[in-house]
DNA sequence: CGGGTCATTGATGCTCATCAAGCACAGTGG
DNA sequence: CCACTGTGCTTGATGAGCATCAATGACCCG
C-alpha cells in the first residue's frame, strides 16, 4: 500500500520532531497499540501541509482517514452562501474521519502547519479487521466525539456570547498551553503555566466555532479582560486570571 | 438477569401492539439479528411509561441502556438555571445510551407514552462480546448519531429562526407521518400522505431542540404558513405545501 | 365550572449582527 | 529602505432579529 510519493520527501523536513515520541505520535494517543501503529504506518503516506490546506480536497483524500501527528485541524460544515460552522477541533495526536464512516459533507482544513498520515480507508478497515479490540477502541472514541458534540450543542443553542467565550476558553485551557502547539513531548513537564494558553484560531475561526461573528468574539474577550477574568499578553496568548469566576461565567 | 418486576404487569396492557412486528421491534431496527434481539430481551425488563417520564431518574436506570419499542423520547443537556437543549430525538425502534459509554450528564425523557426495554449495561456488554459483528453495527450507529449531531450544530450555530424551522420540518417529515406515532407496522403502506406529519413535540420542546423560544417557534410557523410553504390542520398536524421552497427556506 | 396545559399574538427592549473606520504587523517588490 | 498590500484585531454606530413580558383563547380533565 505504501506508494513511493514525492510528498515523502517532506519527511526529512520534519526531523525537528522529538524522536522519542515518534512512535507514540504514530499511535494517535492511546488509540493504537505500537503494533497497530506500525501496520497503519505501513499503508500510509506521510505529508507535511501548510496552514490553510483543505485536506478533503481530492477524491483520493476524501477516501482516506487522516492521523494528525502535529498541528491543529478544524472540521466544518458549510451552507451554500458561505456561512460555516466548525463542528470539531482536532489537535495532535488524533484521528480524522473514522473508518467505516461515510465520507460526509464536511470540510477539513489545517489551522496550523501540520504533519499527517493519510491512511486509505479500505486499508485502515483491513487493519481494523485484523486487530481484535481496535474497533472497540474506535467505537469508544466515536462515543467521546458524540459527547463533545452534544456539549457544543448546548453551548450553541442556549448560551449567551459571554458564556460561549468563557466555555471556549475553559475548553482550550489544557489543550493549548504555550509552546505546546505542535509539540507534545513536554506534556509531563510540570513547569508549564496551566493558566496560560496560545489560541491556535483567529477571532473569525473562534466565531465559526461558537456561532458568533469575529467582532462579537473580540468584544467579549475585551469584556472578560475588563472584568479581570482573563488577560492577554498578545491577541493570541491568554491567561486565565480567575478560573472560578470564568467557570461561573461559562454557566457551568 | 430477568428479575420479576411489578412493572412487568404493564406488559399485558401493551397488547395493542401489532403482534407480527414484536420481534422486529425488539430488534431495534436493523441493529440486531433476531437471535441477538432474543438475548437482549432475556436480560431486559419491559416497561410502559407515560409521557413526561424521566428515564434516567434512578441509579438503576442510569446504568441501563433503553431499547425504544414505541413512542418518542428526547435527550437533553441542562444548564443549572433551567435552560435546556435537546441534543437528540429518538423514535421507535431505536436505542438510547450506548453500551460502553459513560452514562453522561443528560436527561432522557419520554415525549409520548412509550414502551421500552431496560437493558442493564453490563448485561448488554456481555451480549455484545458474545456476538461478533454487533459491536461493529453499534459503532456505525454511533457514527450516524455523530453526523446528525453535526448537522444540528450547523443549524444552531448558523441558521436563522426561519431556516431552523424549515430544517426541522424537513427532518421530521418522513419520521412522523400521521398515525405513525407509536405505530410502525404500517411503514410500507403506500396510502400515506408523505407531505403531512404529526409533530410529537410541543412548541416549547421544538424551541428546546432548535435553540429558540416557544413564541418564536409559533411566529415562524405562522410566517411559513402565511407564505404558503406549509399548512396546519391543527397545531400539531402540518402539511408541506411546497417542498421545494421549504428546502430553499432551510438554507440547503 | 375552575384550573391546567398549549398555542397564538402583540408590545417592547436587549443582544448580537452588520457596516465602517482605524491600527498593527508581515510580506512584497520597487 | 520604504511605499504598498493583505490579514488580523479592535472599537464605534446603527439596526435587525429574537427574547421577554403580557394578554387572550382553545381545549381537556377532575
UniProtKB/TrEMBL annotation, chains A, B:
Q: Give residue ranges for domain HTH crp-type.
A: 159-244
Report the domain of life of the source organism.
Bacteria
Q: Pfam families attached here?
A: cNMP_binding, HTH_Crp_2
Which key words are in the record? DNA-binding, Transcription, Transcription regulation
Q: Does the keyword Transferase apply?
A: no
In terms of SUPFAM superfamilies, this protein maps to: cAMP-binding domain-like, Winged helix' DNA-binding domain
Q: What InterPro entries does the database record attribute to this sequence?
A: cNMP-bd_dom, cNMP-bd_dom_sf, Env_Response_Regulators, HTH_CRP, RmlC-like_jellyroll, Tscrpt_reg_HTH_Crp-type_CS, WH-like_DNA-bd_sf, WH_DNA-bd_sf
Q: What protein name is recorded for this chain?
A: Crp/Fnr family transcriptional regulator
